[in-house]
Amino acid sequence: MSSSPASDPQASVASPCCRRCCLDEGDVCLGCGRSLGEILEWNEADGERRRRIIADAAQRRNKRSPAP
Fold first, then answer.
1. How many CA atoms lie within 13 A of 18 on its CB side?
2. Residue 16 in contact with residue 32, Cβ under 8 Å?
3. Which InterPro entries did the record assign (predicted)?
4. pTM of the entire structure?
5. Mean pLDDT of all residues in 30-54
6. End-to-end distance of the chain based on CA atoms, in angstroms?
7. pLDDT (average), residues 50-66
8. Distance of CA 4 to the CA centre of its chain
9. Rounded mean pLDDT of 51-68?
10. Quick count: other Cβ atoms within 10 Å of Cβ 43?
11. Are 49 and 41 in contact (CB under 8 A)?
């Protein structure tokens, strides 16, 4: 039996990695905004946790570079 994206909650949440990997002094990626811990956790995280990581990362990016 094959697994569909609907039956795999991890498959429905794409990685926010944008291949600009560089950690700041707080161990937060300057590219995607995830913490080092979140990056390491990503592969094991379920869909709900992945969505939370993405939301938290977006908040960090927005605080770092506010819109003009």
1. 12
2. yes
3. DUF1289
4. 0.77
5. 97
6. 51
7. 91
8. 22
9. 87
10. 9
11. yes
